[in-house]
Amino acid sequence: MIVVKVGGSAGIDYDAVCADLSARVQAGEKFILVHGGSGETNRVAEALGHPPRFVTSPSGYTSRFTDRQTLEIFEMVYCGKMNKGIVERLQRLGVNAVGLSGLDGRIFEGRHKDSVRAVENGKVKVLRGDHTGTVEKVNTGLLELLLNAGYLPVLTPPAASYEGVAINVDGDRAAAALAVALKADALLLLSNVPGLLRDYPDEASLIREIPAADVESYLDFAQDRMKKKVLGAAEAVAGGVGRVIFGDARAGQPVSAALAGAGTVVS
């Protein structure tokens, strides 16, 4: 079992990811695909007159401030356009994909954080009305039904809070929690860079290998959203996932290349 998370930033070649996955699924391998949609969500939010607001926590992590209107735009793009676009690509390639959010069947579950601490103009503020959280529990029953019946699940945030409220969760950390829950052999985190770069954005500075016991010491090299990927990788290997690979989803055969060791391998 391999969990593949493909990001939502500019430059990602979803056709290439789906074609590569299709070939491997038809050769008998089992996958679950988790996807993002941040770039398209930003574009749609701007067009709807409710532009995105990003906040930075005191510990340096950047996230989307998700008020109720932002959550509805987020669901429209992630669960609608992005999810069904990927499912359609896979169906056209002969893969019986099923698209679900983490809210469906409470696949992803966690605590709703109504407020978030953010640094603005050098001061720490508490922002209320947030609809975010962290995946604390993965309910695998529905996924196992689908996998055993020959379907390929295509998953996306949001998750469900314990009260059943939709919450925006980080897709990389959700994929890491999923990989741990399913005892996956590997977790691939595919994005629009070749892996973790020692000197971002210099792609020649790719870090090829990270020892599993030492992942968090590499956080200093991670810029912006890559920090959550490194954190997710640390959580996955600590939870027993065999290896985590940060790979490039911009062209070629992204899944096969990552499994062959292209990118940054955490093991």
Architecture blueprint of SSEs:
Layout: E1 2-6, H1 14-26, E2 31-35, H2 38-47, E3 54-56, E4 62-64, H3 68-92, E5 97-101, E6 108-120, E7 123-138, H4 141-148, E8 152-156, E9 159-161, E10 166-167, H5 171-181, E11 186-191, E12 209-210, H6 226-238, E13 243-248, H7 254-259, E14 264-266
Parallel strand pairs: 1-2, 1-11, 2-8, 5-8, 6-9, 11-13, 12-14
Antiparallel strand pairs: 3-4, 6-7, 9-10, 13-14
Helix pairs in contact: 2-3, 5-6
Describe the structure.
Residues 1-246 form the Aspartate/glutamate/uridylate kinase domain. By secondary structure, the protein is of the alpha/beta class. It is built from 7 helices and 14 strands. The strands form 3 sheets. The chain has an 8-stranded mixed beta sheet, with helices on both faces. Strands 7-6-9-10 form a 4-stranded mixed beta sheet, covered by helices on one side. The chain is globular, with a radius of gyration of 17 Å. The mean pLDDT is 96.
